[in-house]
Amino acid sequence: MTKSRNLLLPVLFGAVLLGLWQALIRVYDVPPYILPAPSDIARALWVDGPELISALIVTLQVTIAALLLACITGAGLAIVLVQSKVLERMMMPYAVFLQVTPIVTVAPFIIIWVETPFIVLLILAWIAAVFPIISNTLLGLKSADRSLQDLFRLYGASRTQTLRRLLIPSALPYFFGGLRISGGLALIGTVVAEMVAGTSGVSSGLASRLLEASYRLELARALACFVLLSVTGYAIYGVLNWLSGQLLRHWHESAMDEPGV
Amino acid sequence: MEGSAGSVPLLFENVSLTFANGTQAVETASFSVAAGQFASIVGPSGCGKSTLLRIASGLLKASTGQVTTGSSKSPKVGFIFQEPTLMPWATVFENVALPLRLQETTESDLSDRVTDALSLVGLEAFADAYPRELSGGMKMRVSFARALVSQPDVLLLDEPFAALDEFTRAQFNDDLLRLCEHHSWTTLFVTHSIQEATYLSDKILVMSARPGRITTEKLVPFPHPRSQSLRASHGFLDFVTEVSRDLKTTAGVAAQ
After folding, report:
1. Mean pLDDT for each 10-residue chunk of chain A (261 residues)?
2. First vs last Cα of chain A: how many Å apart?
3. Predicted ipTM?
4. What's the CA gap between A174 and B209, in Å, rounded?
5. Candidate from B77, B85, B87 with C-beta closest to A169
6. What is the pTM of this model?
7. Which single residue of A17, A224, B40, B118 has CA 20 to 30 Å from A51?
8. B212 CB near a chain A CB, below 8 Å?
Protein backbone atom coordinates (compact mmCIF):
# COMPACT_ATOMS: atom_id res chain seq x y z
CA MET A 1 0.00 0.00 0.00
CA THR A 2 2.53 2.59 1.17
CA LYS A 3 5.06 1.16 -1.24
CA SER A 4 2.82 1.61 -4.28
CA ARG A 5 1.90 5.08 -3.10
CA ASN A 6 5.60 5.87 -2.70
CA LEU A 7 6.01 5.07 -6.36
CA LEU A 8 2.72 6.59 -7.51
CA LEU A 9 3.28 10.08 -6.11
CA PRO A 10 6.53 10.94 -7.90
CA VAL A 11 5.30 9.32 -11.15
CA LEU A 12 2.11 11.39 -11.01
CA PHE A 13 4.08 14.53 -10.28
CA GLY A 14 6.41 13.85 -13.22
CA ALA A 15 3.47 13.19 -15.55
CA VAL A 16 1.85 16.48 -14.59
CA LEU A 17 5.09 18.38 -15.24
CA LEU A 18 5.60 16.69 -18.62
CA GLY A 19 1.99 17.40 -19.59
CA LEU A 20 2.40 21.04 -18.68
CA TRP A 21 5.62 21.23 -20.67
CA GLN A 22 3.97 19.62 -23.70
CA ALA A 23 0.99 21.98 -23.49
CA LEU A 24 3.13 25.12 -23.18
CA ILE A 25 5.23 24.16 -26.21
CA ARG A 26 2.04 23.68 -28.26
CA VAL A 27 0.35 26.84 -27.00
CA TYR A 28 3.33 29.15 -27.55
CA ASP A 29 4.58 27.26 -30.61
CA VAL A 30 8.19 27.07 -29.37
CA PRO A 31 10.54 25.85 -32.12
CA PRO A 32 12.26 22.51 -31.33
CA TYR A 33 15.77 24.01 -31.63
CA ILE A 34 14.99 26.20 -28.60
CA LEU A 35 13.08 23.67 -26.55
CA PRO A 36 11.64 20.41 -27.90
CA ALA A 37 8.42 18.98 -26.48
CA PRO A 38 8.54 15.79 -24.40
CA SER A 39 6.98 13.96 -27.34
CA ASP A 40 9.92 15.06 -29.55
CA ILE A 41 12.39 13.72 -26.98
CA ALA A 42 10.45 10.47 -26.81
CA ARG A 43 10.56 10.19 -30.60
CA ALA A 44 14.33 10.85 -30.61
CA LEU A 45 14.73 8.17 -27.96
CA TRP A 46 12.72 5.74 -30.06
CA VAL A 47 14.33 6.49 -33.42
CA ASP A 48 17.94 6.93 -32.28
CA GLY A 49 17.54 4.44 -29.45
CA PRO A 50 19.79 1.62 -30.71
CA GLU A 51 22.59 4.02 -31.61
CA LEU A 52 22.35 5.92 -28.33
CA ILE A 53 22.23 2.70 -26.33
CA SER A 54 25.45 1.49 -27.92
CA ALA A 55 27.04 4.86 -27.04
CA LEU A 56 25.69 4.45 -23.52
CA ILE A 57 27.37 1.05 -23.30
CA VAL A 58 30.72 2.70 -24.14
CA THR A 59 30.16 5.23 -21.35
CA LEU A 60 29.01 2.53 -18.94
CA GLN A 61 32.12 0.44 -19.60
CA VAL A 62 34.31 3.32 -18.49
CA THR A 63 32.06 4.08 -15.51
CA ILE A 64 31.98 0.50 -14.25
CA ALA A 65 35.70 -0.03 -14.78
CA ALA A 66 36.46 3.22 -12.93
CA LEU A 67 34.14 2.27 -10.10
CA LEU A 68 35.70 -1.17 -9.71
CA LEU A 69 39.16 0.35 -9.79
CA ALA A 70 38.06 2.94 -7.21
CA CYS A 71 36.75 0.13 -4.96
CA ILE A 72 39.96 -1.83 -5.09
CA THR A 73 42.36 1.08 -4.79
CA GLY A 74 40.17 3.07 -2.37
CA ALA A 75 39.55 0.21 0.05
CA GLY A 76 43.13 -0.98 -0.38
CA LEU A 77 44.55 2.44 0.40
CA ALA A 78 42.28 2.79 3.45
CA ILE A 79 43.56 -0.56 4.75
CA VAL A 80 47.14 0.61 4.25
CA LEU A 81 46.48 3.98 5.92
CA VAL A 82 44.81 2.45 8.98
CA GLN A 83 47.98 0.49 9.74
CA SER A 84 49.75 3.52 11.16
CA LYS A 85 48.90 7.04 12.22
CA VAL A 86 52.15 8.30 10.68
CA LEU A 87 51.28 6.81 7.31
CA GLU A 88 47.81 8.33 7.47
CA ARG A 89 49.12 11.78 8.36
CA MET A 90 51.70 11.47 5.60
CA MET A 91 49.38 10.41 2.79
CA MET A 92 45.91 11.73 3.59
CA PRO A 93 46.58 15.26 2.21
CA TYR A 94 47.31 13.70 -1.18
CA ALA A 95 44.12 11.67 -1.07
CA VAL A 96 42.26 14.92 -0.34
CA PHE A 97 44.04 16.40 -3.35
CA LEU A 98 42.19 13.87 -5.52
CA GLN A 99 38.93 15.10 -4.08
CA VAL A 100 39.43 18.85 -4.31
CA THR A 101 41.06 19.04 -7.74
CA PRO A 102 38.47 19.64 -10.48
CA ILE A 103 39.07 16.84 -12.99
CA VAL A 104 38.62 19.29 -15.85
CA THR A 105 41.95 20.85 -14.88
CA VAL A 106 43.74 17.52 -14.73
CA ALA A 107 42.32 16.27 -18.02
CA PRO A 108 44.68 18.14 -20.41
CA PHE A 109 47.73 16.54 -18.78
CA ILE A 110 46.29 13.06 -18.76
CA ILE A 111 45.36 13.45 -22.42
CA ILE A 112 48.97 14.39 -23.24
CA TRP A 113 50.53 11.64 -21.16
CA VAL A 114 48.21 8.77 -21.98
CA GLU A 115 47.56 7.58 -25.49
CA THR A 116 44.60 5.23 -25.24
CA PRO A 117 41.33 7.23 -24.98
CA PHE A 118 39.74 4.53 -22.82
CA ILE A 119 42.53 4.79 -20.27
CA VAL A 120 42.30 8.59 -20.26
CA LEU A 121 38.61 8.44 -19.43
CA LEU A 122 39.23 5.68 -16.89
CA ILE A 123 41.84 7.70 -15.01
CA LEU A 124 39.66 10.83 -14.93
CA ALA A 125 36.56 8.95 -13.78
CA TRP A 126 38.66 7.15 -11.16
CA ILE A 127 39.93 10.47 -9.79
CA ALA A 128 36.33 11.63 -9.46
CA ALA A 129 35.15 8.44 -7.75
CA VAL A 130 37.89 7.24 -5.42
CA PHE A 131 37.89 9.70 -2.54
CA PRO A 132 34.53 8.90 -0.88
CA ILE A 133 35.57 5.25 -0.79
CA ILE A 134 38.94 5.99 0.79
CA SER A 135 37.57 8.36 3.40
CA ASN A 136 34.49 6.31 4.32
CA THR A 137 36.35 3.01 4.50
CA LEU A 138 39.03 4.59 6.65
CA LEU A 139 36.37 5.94 9.00
CA GLY A 140 34.78 2.48 9.15
CA LEU A 141 38.05 0.71 9.85
CA LYS A 142 38.63 3.08 12.74
CA SER A 143 35.11 2.66 14.13
CA ALA A 144 35.47 -0.97 15.19
CA ASP A 145 34.04 -1.57 18.67
CA ARG A 146 36.66 -0.95 21.39
CA SER A 147 35.65 -3.88 23.54
CA LEU A 148 35.81 -6.21 20.54
CA GLN A 149 39.29 -4.90 19.83
CA ASP A 150 40.21 -5.71 23.44
CA LEU A 151 38.77 -9.17 22.97
CA PHE A 152 40.90 -9.75 19.88
CA ARG A 153 44.00 -8.58 21.77
CA LEU A 154 43.11 -10.85 24.66
CA TYR A 155 43.07 -13.88 22.39
CA GLY A 156 46.36 -12.87 20.81
CA ALA A 157 44.90 -12.14 17.38
CA SER A 158 47.47 -11.21 14.73
CA ARG A 159 47.23 -8.00 12.74
CA THR A 160 45.87 -9.89 9.76
CA GLN A 161 43.29 -11.74 11.84
CA THR A 162 42.09 -8.50 13.44
CA LEU A 163 41.89 -6.86 10.04
CA ARG A 164 40.02 -9.72 8.41
CA ARG A 165 37.68 -10.68 11.23
CA LEU A 166 37.06 -7.35 12.92
CA LEU A 167 38.12 -4.21 11.08
CA ILE A 168 36.93 -5.09 7.59
CA PRO A 169 33.46 -6.31 8.65
CA SER A 170 33.08 -3.19 10.83
CA ALA A 171 34.02 -1.01 7.86
CA LEU A 172 31.65 -2.67 5.40
CA PRO A 173 28.59 -0.42 6.03
CA TYR A 174 30.80 2.67 5.75
CA PHE A 175 32.41 1.33 2.58
CA PHE A 176 28.99 0.90 1.00
CA GLY A 177 28.04 4.42 2.05
CA GLY A 178 31.08 5.65 0.16
CA LEU A 179 30.40 3.37 -2.78
CA ARG A 180 26.91 4.78 -3.26
CA ILE A 181 28.35 8.28 -3.53
CA SER A 182 31.16 7.08 -5.78
CA GLY A 183 28.76 5.33 -8.15
CA GLY A 184 27.22 8.67 -9.09
CA LEU A 185 30.60 10.37 -9.17
CA ALA A 186 32.07 7.73 -11.49
CA LEU A 187 29.31 8.44 -14.02
CA ILE A 188 29.71 12.20 -13.66
CA GLY A 189 33.48 11.77 -13.99
CA THR A 190 33.10 9.71 -17.16
CA VAL A 191 30.72 12.22 -18.71
CA VAL A 192 32.92 15.21 -17.90
CA ALA A 193 35.98 13.33 -19.14
CA GLU A 194 34.26 12.46 -22.43
CA MET A 195 33.31 16.10 -22.94
CA VAL A 196 36.75 17.43 -22.10
CA ALA A 197 38.71 14.77 -23.93
CA GLY A 198 36.55 15.39 -26.97
CA THR A 199 36.41 11.80 -28.08
CA SER A 200 34.36 11.39 -31.21
CA GLY A 201 33.34 8.90 -33.87
CA VAL A 202 31.35 5.71 -33.62
CA SER A 203 33.23 4.38 -30.61
CA SER A 204 32.51 7.47 -28.52
CA GLY A 205 30.28 7.57 -25.47
CA LEU A 206 26.93 9.12 -24.82
CA ALA A 207 28.31 12.41 -23.52
CA SER A 208 30.09 13.04 -26.81
CA ARG A 209 26.82 12.31 -28.62
CA LEU A 210 25.07 14.80 -26.39
CA LEU A 211 27.64 17.49 -27.26
CA GLU A 212 27.49 16.69 -30.98
CA ALA A 213 23.71 16.90 -30.98
CA SER A 214 23.68 20.20 -29.14
CA TYR A 215 26.24 21.69 -31.57
CA ARG A 216 23.86 20.79 -34.39
CA LEU A 217 20.95 22.20 -32.39
CA GLU A 218 19.30 18.74 -32.38
CA LEU A 219 18.00 19.43 -28.92
CA ALA A 220 15.56 16.51 -28.85
CA ARG A 221 18.43 14.10 -29.47
CA ALA A 222 20.65 15.88 -26.92
CA LEU A 223 17.90 15.69 -24.34
CA ALA A 224 17.37 12.02 -25.15
CA CYS A 225 21.05 11.47 -24.28
CA PHE A 226 20.49 13.46 -21.12
CA VAL A 227 17.50 11.31 -20.14
CA LEU A 228 19.47 8.11 -20.74
CA LEU A 229 22.36 9.35 -18.58
CA SER A 230 20.02 10.32 -15.73
CA VAL A 231 18.29 6.95 -15.84
CA THR A 232 21.71 5.27 -15.81
CA GLY A 233 22.70 7.30 -12.74
CA TYR A 234 19.55 6.14 -10.97
CA ALA A 235 20.18 2.55 -12.00
CA ILE A 236 23.75 2.59 -10.67
CA TYR A 237 22.54 3.99 -7.37
CA GLY A 238 19.76 1.41 -7.24
CA VAL A 239 22.07 -1.52 -7.92
CA LEU A 240 24.61 -0.41 -5.32
CA ASN A 241 21.85 0.20 -2.80
CA TRP A 242 20.45 -3.26 -3.41
CA LEU A 243 23.88 -4.86 -3.17
CA SER A 244 24.61 -3.13 0.11
CA GLY A 245 21.21 -4.16 1.47
CA GLN A 246 21.81 -7.79 0.51
CA LEU A 247 25.22 -7.95 2.13
CA LEU A 248 24.27 -6.13 5.33
CA ARG A 249 20.71 -7.31 5.83
CA HIS A 250 21.51 -9.78 8.60
CA TRP A 251 23.10 -7.36 10.93
CA HIS A 252 23.32 -3.70 10.06
CA GLU A 253 20.68 -1.21 11.16
CA SER A 254 20.87 0.62 7.85
CA ALA A 255 19.78 -2.46 5.89
CA MET A 256 16.77 -3.40 8.00
CA ASP A 257 13.98 -1.27 6.67
CA GLU A 258 15.67 0.23 3.70
CA PRO A 259 13.11 2.11 1.60
CA GLY A 260 15.07 1.35 -1.58
CA VAL A 261 14.87 3.33 -4.77
CA MET B 1 34.44 -28.92 28.90
CA GLU B 2 36.29 -31.00 31.48
CA GLY B 3 39.61 -29.77 30.15
CA SER B 4 40.00 -27.05 32.76
CA ALA B 5 41.28 -29.42 35.44
CA GLY B 6 44.71 -27.83 35.58
CA SER B 7 43.40 -24.92 37.58
CA VAL B 8 45.78 -22.16 38.64
CA PRO B 9 45.82 -19.54 41.39
CA LEU B 10 45.86 -15.84 40.61
CA LEU B 11 48.35 -13.78 42.60
CA PHE B 12 48.44 -9.98 42.71
CA GLU B 13 51.74 -8.74 44.10
CA ASN B 14 52.00 -5.01 44.91
CA VAL B 15 50.07 -4.14 41.78
CA SER B 16 49.56 -0.43 41.19
CA LEU B 17 48.59 1.58 38.17
CA THR B 18 49.09 5.27 37.52
CA PHE B 19 47.76 6.61 34.24
CA ALA B 20 49.86 8.87 32.03
CA ASN B 21 47.93 11.92 33.24
CA GLY B 22 48.99 11.21 36.83
CA THR B 23 45.70 9.72 38.03
CA GLN B 24 46.38 6.85 40.37
CA ALA B 25 43.82 4.21 39.41
CA VAL B 26 44.99 1.40 41.65
CA GLU B 27 47.16 1.70 44.74
CA THR B 28 49.34 -1.28 45.67
CA ALA B 29 46.97 -4.19 45.65
CA SER B 30 48.19 -7.51 46.98
CA PHE B 31 45.84 -10.44 47.18
CA SER B 32 45.41 -13.93 45.90
CA VAL B 33 42.64 -16.03 44.47
CA ALA B 34 43.27 -19.72 45.14
CA ALA B 35 43.05 -22.26 42.35
CA GLY B 36 39.39 -22.92 41.62
CA GLN B 37 38.25 -20.18 43.96
CA PHE B 38 35.53 -17.64 43.15
CA ALA B 39 36.49 -14.17 44.31
CA SER B 40 34.51 -10.95 43.94
CA ILE B 41 35.66 -7.37 44.03
CA VAL B 42 33.00 -4.99 45.33
CA GLY B 43 33.27 -1.24 45.58
CA PRO B 44 31.73 2.04 44.51
CA SER B 45 31.71 2.81 40.80
CA GLY B 46 34.88 4.36 39.53
CA CYS B 47 37.04 2.81 42.26
CA GLY B 48 39.20 0.87 39.82
CA LYS B 49 37.54 -2.56 39.99
CA SER B 50 37.45 -2.92 36.24
CA THR B 51 40.99 -1.59 35.95
CA LEU B 52 42.17 -4.33 38.28
CA LEU B 53 40.42 -6.89 36.11
CA ARG B 54 42.00 -5.51 32.97
CA ILE B 55 45.41 -5.76 34.61
CA ALA B 56 44.65 -9.38 35.46
CA SER B 57 43.74 -10.08 31.84
CA GLY B 58 46.89 -8.47 30.51
CA LEU B 59 44.96 -5.79 28.60
CA LEU B 60 46.51 -3.18 30.89
CA LYS B 61 50.04 -3.27 32.18
CA ALA B 62 50.59 -2.53 35.87
CA SER B 63 52.91 0.39 36.70
CA THR B 64 54.46 -1.62 39.51
CA GLY B 65 54.09 -5.16 40.75
CA GLN B 66 52.76 -8.07 38.77
CA VAL B 67 49.98 -10.59 38.39
CA THR B 68 51.17 -14.19 38.30
CA THR B 69 49.61 -17.59 38.36
CA GLY B 70 52.22 -19.33 40.46
CA SER B 71 53.40 -21.40 37.53
CA SER B 72 55.48 -20.60 34.50
CA LYS B 73 52.80 -21.32 31.92
CA SER B 74 50.65 -18.38 30.97
CA PRO B 75 47.02 -19.09 31.84
CA LYS B 76 44.19 -19.15 29.38
CA VAL B 77 41.90 -16.30 30.25
CA GLY B 78 38.19 -16.00 29.57
CA PHE B 79 36.98 -12.41 29.80
CA ILE B 80 33.36 -11.37 30.01
CA PHE B 81 32.67 -7.70 29.45
CA GLN B 82 29.90 -5.50 30.83
CA GLU B 83 28.24 -5.58 27.44
CA PRO B 84 27.83 -8.81 25.45
CA THR B 85 30.40 -7.44 22.94
CA LEU B 86 29.36 -9.68 20.05
CA MET B 87 30.22 -9.29 16.39
CA PRO B 88 26.87 -8.24 14.84
CA TRP B 89 27.81 -9.60 11.42
CA ALA B 90 28.51 -13.11 12.68
CA THR B 91 26.11 -15.85 13.77
CA VAL B 92 25.98 -17.07 17.36
CA PHE B 93 28.08 -20.05 16.29
CA GLU B 94 30.77 -17.87 14.72
CA ASN B 95 30.81 -15.52 17.69
CA VAL B 96 31.43 -18.40 20.08
CA ALA B 97 33.98 -19.93 17.70
CA LEU B 98 36.04 -16.73 17.57
CA PRO B 99 38.66 -17.62 20.22
CA LEU B 100 39.21 -20.98 18.51
CA ARG B 101 39.44 -19.43 15.05
CA LEU B 102 42.03 -16.98 16.33
CA GLN B 103 44.02 -19.90 17.70
CA GLU B 104 43.52 -21.77 14.44
CA THR B 105 41.85 -24.83 15.87
CA THR B 106 41.07 -27.59 13.36
CA GLU B 107 37.56 -27.48 11.94
CA SER B 108 36.13 -30.75 13.31
CA ASP B 109 37.36 -30.09 16.83
CA LEU B 110 36.07 -26.54 16.60
CA SER B 111 32.53 -27.54 15.78
CA ASP B 112 32.30 -29.94 18.74
CA ARG B 113 33.72 -27.47 21.17
CA VAL B 114 31.43 -24.65 20.05
CA THR B 115 28.41 -26.95 20.34
CA ASP B 116 29.52 -28.00 23.83
CA ALA B 117 29.95 -24.40 24.91
CA LEU B 118 26.54 -23.46 23.51
CA SER B 119 24.87 -26.33 25.33
CA LEU B 120 26.48 -25.21 28.59
CA VAL B 121 24.56 -21.94 28.32
CA GLY B 122 21.46 -23.57 26.78
CA LEU B 123 21.67 -21.97 23.36
CA GLU B 124 22.27 -24.99 21.06
CA ALA B 125 19.11 -24.13 19.16
CA PHE B 126 20.33 -20.62 18.35
CA ALA B 127 23.65 -21.44 16.69
CA ASP B 128 22.57 -19.92 13.37
CA ALA B 129 20.85 -16.85 14.78
CA TYR B 130 22.35 -13.38 14.51
CA PRO B 131 22.94 -11.32 17.68
CA ARG B 132 20.22 -8.80 16.82
CA GLU B 133 17.63 -11.58 16.92
CA LEU B 134 18.45 -12.34 20.56
CA SER B 135 17.32 -10.77 23.84
CA GLY B 136 19.83 -9.03 26.10
CA GLY B 137 20.04 -12.07 28.37
CA MET B 138 20.63 -14.44 25.47
CA LYS B 139 23.37 -12.21 24.08
CA MET B 140 25.06 -12.37 27.46
CA ARG B 141 24.82 -16.16 27.33
CA VAL B 142 26.58 -16.13 23.98
CA SER B 143 29.27 -13.98 25.55
CA PHE B 144 29.63 -16.61 28.31
CA ALA B 145 29.84 -19.44 25.81
CA ARG B 146 32.58 -17.57 23.97
CA ALA B 147 34.56 -17.15 27.20
CA LEU B 148 34.15 -20.84 28.03
CA VAL B 149 34.92 -22.29 24.61
CA SER B 150 38.66 -21.82 24.94
CA GLN B 151 38.57 -23.81 28.20
CA PRO B 152 40.02 -21.06 30.35
CA ASP B 153 41.99 -21.50 33.55
CA VAL B 154 40.99 -18.08 34.74
CA LEU B 155 37.59 -16.47 34.27
CA LEU B 156 37.35 -12.68 34.57
CA LEU B 157 33.91 -11.08 34.73
CA ASP B 158 33.42 -7.33 34.59
CA GLU B 159 29.91 -6.60 35.95
CA PRO B 160 28.35 -8.82 33.30
CA PHE B 161 24.86 -8.66 34.81
CA ALA B 162 24.63 -4.90 35.24
CA ALA B 163 22.42 -4.39 32.19
CA LEU B 164 20.02 -7.28 32.89
CA ASP B 165 16.66 -7.17 34.62
CA GLU B 166 16.29 -8.54 38.14
CA PHE B 167 14.76 -11.87 37.14
CA THR B 168 17.27 -12.65 34.38
CA ARG B 169 20.03 -11.61 36.71
CA ALA B 170 18.96 -14.05 39.44
CA GLN B 171 18.79 -16.83 36.87
CA PHE B 172 22.25 -15.93 35.60
CA ASN B 173 23.60 -16.02 39.14
CA ASP B 174 22.30 -19.57 39.57
CA ASP B 175 23.64 -20.69 36.21
CA LEU B 176 27.05 -19.22 36.91
CA LEU B 177 27.10 -20.83 40.35
CA ARG B 178 26.19 -24.21 38.85
CA LEU B 179 28.88 -23.89 36.14
CA CYS B 180 31.53 -22.84 38.63
CA GLU B 181 30.68 -25.68 40.97
CA HIS B 182 31.22 -28.16 38.14
CA HIS B 183 34.40 -26.62 36.78
CA SER B 184 37.53 -25.57 38.53
CA TRP B 185 37.91 -22.10 37.06
CA THR B 186 39.71 -19.54 39.11
CA THR B 187 37.23 -16.71 38.93
CA LEU B 188 37.52 -12.99 39.57
CA PHE B 189 34.17 -11.23 39.45
CA VAL B 190 33.57 -7.50 39.58
CA THR B 191 30.21 -6.19 40.80
CA HIS B 192 28.73 -3.39 42.84
CA SER B 193 26.08 -5.63 44.33
CA ILE B 194 27.17 -7.04 47.68
CA GLN B 195 24.26 -9.51 47.67
CA GLU B 196 25.35 -10.91 44.33
CA ALA B 197 28.99 -11.09 45.43
CA THR B 198 28.04 -12.90 48.63
CA TYR B 199 25.79 -15.37 46.87
CA LEU B 200 28.41 -16.31 44.28
CA SER B 201 31.77 -15.99 45.96
CA ASP B 202 34.15 -17.86 48.22
CA LYS B 203 35.97 -14.64 48.92
CA ILE B 204 35.05 -10.95 48.78
CA LEU B 205 37.53 -8.13 48.29
CA VAL B 206 36.24 -4.71 49.31
CA MET B 207 37.71 -1.84 47.36
CA SER B 208 37.69 1.88 48.12
CA ALA B 209 37.74 4.74 45.65
CA ARG B 210 40.39 7.27 44.68
CA PRO B 211 42.90 5.78 44.81
CA GLY B 212 41.53 2.28 44.32
CA ARG B 213 42.67 0.19 47.24
CA ILE B 214 41.68 -3.24 48.55
CA THR B 215 40.67 -2.43 52.10
CA THR B 216 39.13 -5.67 53.36
CA GLU B 217 39.31 -9.32 52.44
CA LYS B 218 36.50 -11.58 53.65
CA LEU B 219 35.92 -15.29 53.24
CA VAL B 220 32.27 -16.17 52.59
CA PRO B 221 31.26 -18.84 55.11
CA PHE B 222 28.40 -20.53 53.19
CA PRO B 223 28.99 -24.03 51.81
CA HIS B 224 28.31 -25.15 48.23
CA PRO B 225 26.00 -26.04 46.56
CA ARG B 226 24.04 -22.88 47.22
CA SER B 227 20.49 -22.07 46.17
CA GLN B 228 18.21 -19.03 46.15
CA SER B 229 16.85 -19.93 49.60
CA LEU B 230 20.25 -18.99 51.01
CA ARG B 231 19.58 -15.39 50.06
CA ALA B 232 16.66 -15.16 52.50
CA SER B 233 18.54 -16.70 55.44
CA HIS B 234 19.57 -14.64 58.46
CA GLY B 235 23.20 -15.66 58.15
CA PHE B 236 23.30 -14.40 54.59
CA LEU B 237 21.68 -11.06 55.41
CA ASP B 238 23.96 -10.57 58.41
CA PHE B 239 27.00 -11.21 56.24
CA VAL B 240 25.79 -8.76 53.59
CA THR B 241 25.22 -6.11 56.28
CA GLU B 242 28.71 -6.70 57.60
CA VAL B 243 30.32 -6.25 54.18
CA SER B 244 28.20 -3.15 53.55
CA ARG B 245 29.46 -1.69 56.81
CA ASP B 246 33.04 -2.41 55.78
CA LEU B 247 32.46 -0.69 52.51
CA LYS B 248 30.91 2.36 54.18
CA THR B 249 33.54 2.81 56.86
CA THR B 250 36.53 2.32 54.60
CA ALA B 251 35.31 4.25 51.61
CA GLY B 252 32.94 6.71 53.20
CA VAL B 253 30.52 5.91 50.43
CA ALA B 254 26.97 4.72 50.96
CA ALA B 255 26.63 1.27 49.47
CA GLN B 256 23.52 -0.72 48.64
Report:
1. 75 93 89 86 88 90 95 94 89 86 87 87 92 94 93 91 94 94 93 80 78 87 91 92 88 64 36
2. 16
3. 0.87
4. 41
5. B87
6. 0.84
7. A17
8. no
